[in-house]
Write a sequence for this structure.
C-alpha cells in the first residue's frame, strides 16, 4: 500500500481525535483534512481556472467562518435586575471568577463576600451575597450560528386568548419584531392548533427565560397622559381643545356637554380621550391621553437620540420617538391649557405608561406649549448601566412592535441545556471521520487507484466548508435539519463524482473514439439533470414547508447549487489531469 495514503489516513484520524477530545471547533477538522488531501493532488492542478475558483471560495468561506481555536470564558447574555455584580454588562466575556475558570457551574454558584471577576475588559470587584444574577453562554468557536437543538436556549408555549388564525399570525409577527429588536434573533415560532385552541411555540437559541418572559407577557399598550387641573370659579370652568367646552361642577360630579360624570368617568372631546379625576369645589382633574402606541411611527436607536448617562447614584436612559401628526396635534391642544412655573416648565408633566404600569413622568418645556411636536424623548432610570440598557431595549422593542391584538398567557417555559448539542457535535465529528473512511474504502475497492481517492475527499470537504461559509455570511442558523441537508447535498455530490470517474475511466470499445472531455461532458449532462430534479423536489418544501422541513430543503438546495456551480467543475478539472 502507498505510504502517502497511510500518512494521509493517519493525519485525518489524528485530526478527528484532537478535535473531539480537545473540544476544538469541527471546522478545524475539515480544514486539516482538506489540506492533507489537497497536498496529494498534482501540483500543477492549481493553475486550472476552475480549481482557482474553488480555492477562492474556500478562502473566502474561511474568512467568513473565522474559526476560533482557543475560545475562553463565558459570554454574558443577560444581567438580572437583582444582580450584585458591578461593571459587568451584556456582551462581556467572563474568563475567571475568584481564580476559577468560568463555566456554567461556577457562574451558578452562590457567593458570600468579595467576588473577583476577570473579564475581557479588565478585573471587576463586587460584594455579592447569593448568586451572581447573570446568564451566560460559551464563547463562540466561529461566526457560525447554531440553533436551539445544538446551542441550547429557552422554549416557551403560549396560549393566546383567541383561536382565529389571522390574529395568531399577527401575534407571531408582533412577537418576532420584539425579539429581533431586543437582540434575540435566533427565534423560531410555530403555531399549533388542538381541540379548537391555538398555541404558539417559541424557541430562542441562547436566550434567557427572564428576557423571554418579559417580552412575551407585555401586552404592549403604550399611553402618554397629561393631567389637566382646571380651576373652578362660581361652579364653572372651561377647557379649550379644538373648540371651547364649558364645565360645571355639581355635588361630586362634573357636567360636560350636558352629561354628568363621577370621578373615574371617561369621555372623548374633540377626539381626545379624557378621564375624570378628583372633583372638588376648587378644581377638577381631567387626565388626557395625548399619545398611544398607534401614534408611534419611528423608534430611534442611533447614539444621538438613544443614550445612557451617568447621573450620580443612578443611570438615566432615554431615546426619541417620532409621532404621528394626529398625536402631535392632540399634544398641542392639551398643552395650551397649561400654565408656566418657574424654571421654564409647564405646570403639569407628561406621564408615560406601558400596559398600565408607570414608566416615567417628564417635565414639559414651556417652549412646547400649544405647539405641534412630532419628535419627543422617552426616558427612565436604573441603578446600574446594564439594567438601564436592558430596560431601554425592552421598551424600545415593545414600542417598535406595537400592542398585541389579544392577551396571551405562558403555558410552559423551559431552559434547554447546550450540553446535548455539544455531545451531538462531537458524535457528528466521529461519524464524519467514519463516513470518510467508508467512502475511501469503497472508492478504493471500486477503482483500485489511490490517486482518485484524494480528489473525492477534497471536493466533499470543500462543499461542506463553502456551505458553512455561506451560512456564516448570511447569518443562517445551523440546526439538526441544516446538518441533515448538508449530509444530503454532500451525498448527491459524491454520487456525481462517481459518475464523472466512471465516464473518465470507461474502456469499452465503442467509447474509444470519444475524448476524455467528451466523456466528462456526458457526465456533466447527467449531473446537471440530477441536480435540477433535486432542486425541483426541494422547492415545494421551501415554499410550503415550515420548521425542520423548510430548513432541510433550503440547505439541500443550497448545497446542490454550490456543487454544480463551484465544486463539480473543479473536480472535473482534477480528474482530467489525473486520468
Amino acid at each position: 500500500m502507498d505510504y502517502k495514503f497511510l500518512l494521509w489516513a493517519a493525519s485525518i484520524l489524528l485530526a478527528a481525535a484532537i478535535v473531539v477530545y480537545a473540544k476544538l471547533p469541527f471546522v478545524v477538522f475539515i480544514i486539516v483534512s482538506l489540506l492533507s488531501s489537497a497536498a496529494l493532488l498534482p501540483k500543477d492542478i492549481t493553475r486550472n481556472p476552475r480549481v482557482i475558483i474553488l480555492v477562492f471560495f474556500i478562502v473566502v468561506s474561511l474568512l467568513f467562518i473565522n474559526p476560533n481555536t482557543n475560545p475562553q470564558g463565558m459570554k454574558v447574555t443577560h444581567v438580572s435586575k437583582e444582580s450584585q455584580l458591578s461593571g459587568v454588562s451584556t456582551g462581556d466575556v467572563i474568563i475567571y471568577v475568584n481564580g476559577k475558570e468560568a463555566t456554567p457551574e461556577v457562574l451558578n454558584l452562590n457567593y458570600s463576600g468579595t467576588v473577583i471577576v476577570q473579564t475581557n475588559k479588565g478585573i471587576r470587584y463586587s460584594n455579592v451575597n447569593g448568586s451572581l444574577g447573570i446568564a451566560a453562554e460559551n464563547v463562540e468557536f466561529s461566526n457560525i450560528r447554531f440553533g436551539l437543538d445544538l446551542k441550547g436556549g429557552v422554549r416557551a408555549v403560549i396560549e393566546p386568548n383567541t383561536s382565529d388564525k389571522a390574529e395568531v399570525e399577527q401575534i407571531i409577527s408582533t412577537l418576532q419584531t420584539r425579539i429581533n429588536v431586543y437582540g434575540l434573533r435566533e427565534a423560531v415560532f410555530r403555531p399549533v392548533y388542538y381541540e379548537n385552541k391555538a398555541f404558539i411555540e417559541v424557541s430562542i437559541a441562547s436566550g434567557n427565560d427572564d428576557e423571554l418572559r418579559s417580552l412575551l407577557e407585555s401586552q404592549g399598550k403604550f399611553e402618554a397622559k397629561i393631567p389637566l387641573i382646571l380651576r373652578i370659579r362660581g361652579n364653572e370652568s372651561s377647557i379649550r381643545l379644538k373648540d371651547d367646552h364649558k364645565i360645571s361642577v355639581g355635588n361630586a360630579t362634573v357636567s360636560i356637554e350636558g352629561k354628568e360624570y363621577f370621578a373615574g368617568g371617561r369621555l372623548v372631546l374633540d377626539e381626545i380621550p379624557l378621564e375624570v379625576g378628583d372633583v372638588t369645589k376648587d378644581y377638577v382633574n381631567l387626565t388626557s391621553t395625548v399619545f398611544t402606541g398607534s401614534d408611534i411611527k419611528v423608534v430611534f436607536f442611533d447614539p444621538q437620540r438613544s443614550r445612557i448617562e451617568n447621573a450620580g447614584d443612578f443611570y438615566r436612559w432615554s431615546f426619541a420617538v417620532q409621532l404621528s401628526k394626529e398625536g402631535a396635534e392632540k399634544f398641542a391642544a392639551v398643552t395650551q391649557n397649561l400654565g408656566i412655573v418657574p424654571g421654564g416648565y409647564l405646570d403639569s408633566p407628561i406621564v408615560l405608561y406601558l400596559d398600565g404600569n408607570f414608566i416615567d413622568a417628564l417635565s414639559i418645556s414651556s417652549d412646547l406649549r400649544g405647539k405641534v411636536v412630532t419628535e419627543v424623548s422617552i426616558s427612565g432610570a436604573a441603578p446600574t448601566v446594564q439594567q438601564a440598557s436592558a430596560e431601554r431595549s425592552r421598551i424600545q422593542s415593545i414600542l417598535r412592535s406595537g400592542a398585541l391584538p389579544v392577551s396571551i398567557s405562558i403555558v410552559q417555559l423551559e431552559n434547554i441545556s447546550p450540553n446535548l448539542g455539544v455531545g451531538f457535535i462531537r458524535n457528528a465529528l466521529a461519524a464524519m471521520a467514519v463516513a470518510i473512511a467508508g467512502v475511501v474504502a469503497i472508492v478504493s475497492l471500486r477503482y483500485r487507484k489511490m490517486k482518485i481517492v484524494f480528489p473525492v475527499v477534497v471536493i466533499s470537504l470543500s462543499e461542506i466548508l463553502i456551505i458553512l461559509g455561506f451560512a456564516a455570511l448570511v447569518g443562517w442558523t445551523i440546526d439538526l435539519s441544516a446538518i441533515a441537508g448538508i449530509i444530503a447535498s454532500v451525498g448527491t455530490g459524491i454520487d456525481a463524482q462517481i459518475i464523472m470517474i466512471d465516464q473518465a475511466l470507461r474502456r469499452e470499445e465503442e467509447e474509444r473514439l470519444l475524448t476524455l472531455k467528451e466523456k466528462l461532458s456526458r457526465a456533466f449532462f447527467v449531473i446537471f439533470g440530477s441536480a435540477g430534479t433535486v432542486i425541483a423536489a426541494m422547492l415545494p418544501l421551501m415554499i410550503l414547508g415550515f420548521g425542520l422541513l423548510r430548513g432541510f430543503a433550503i440547505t439541500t438546495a443550497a448545497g446542490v447549487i454550490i456543487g454544480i456551480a463551484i465544486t463539480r467543475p473543479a473536480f472535473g478539472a482534477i480528474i482530467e489531469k489525473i486520468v
About this structure: The first helix runs from residue 3 to 22.
